[in-house]
Specification:
By secondary structure, this protein is an alpha+beta fold. 52% of the residues lie in helices and 18% in strands. It has a 4-stranded mixed β-sheet with strand order 6-5-4-7, sandwiched between helices. Strands 1-3-2 form a 3-stranded antiparallel β-sheet. The longest helix has 25 residues, at 70-94.
């Protein structure tokens, strides 16, 4: 049931929502293709863990909370959610006493399509004079908590000139960062474009 990524992500969406969902909503929440959602729903229906209502052309789906495994699966996804929130809080705390203009996650974890082997991509923006020490400090602060919570932090630091250069060159990596970034502390990373090397506030 949980060994196939499409089934796992469909089931997660249904459990977290807690009600009836159309396939289009499951596509949006799971970030899967329509075909992957269709296959995931078919597999979960065959196991009896997902039920549907409506007609063949207008179905809505729900998690079958009367299934034998329902309590375990609900507890599993709740623990997963709590762990992710703890990871975000740990990252936030790692920069709490540092001169950071922006601290954010990006990539697959920010999009919600990360897998068990995915890194946690962490970005930060700071002044050039502070950057090396801030990056080293964040990495050190995350060393023990990342082992405890089971995640692999990948910390990338940028100064204000880096941000302006990436933005001016229409860098594809930067475009993805702007699109995906979930800010944990400070401002949006792209807001550094208008600054001239000084932290606000």
């Amino acid at each position: 049931m949980l060994g196939v990524d499409s089934s796992l992500r469909v089931l997660r969406a249904l459990v977290q929502h807690g009600g009836m969902l159309a396939a289009s909503e499951i596509v949006r929440m799971s970030r899967l293709s329509r075909e992957s959602v269709r296959l995931g729903l078919r597999s979960l229906e065959s196991m009896g863990i997902v039920a549907w209502s409506g007609s063949a052309h207008a179905r809505v789906y729900r998690f079958n909370d009367s299934h034998y495994l329902a309590p375990v699966l609900t507890a599993l996804f709740e623990a997963e959610k709590e762990r992710f929130l703890a990871v975000l809080d740990t990252v936030r705390q790692s920069a709490a006493d540092k001169p950071v203009f922006s601290l954010f996650i990006y990539g697959s974890a920010a999009r919600g399509d990360d897998g068990p082997d995915s890194d946690l991509d962490i970005g930060l923006v700071a002044r050039a004079d502070d950057l090396a020490a801030v990056v080293a400090g964040v990495r050190e602060a995350l060393r023990e908590p990342s082992e405890k919570l089971g995640f692999l932090p990948n910390v990338v630091g940028l100064d204000f000139n880096d941000v302006r250069r990436l933005a001016g060159g229409e860098d594809p990596w930067w475009k993805n960062v702007k699109q995906d970034a979930v800010v944990l502390c400070g401002s949006r990373p792209e807001d550094a474009i208008s600054l001239r090397g000084e932290l606000r506030g």
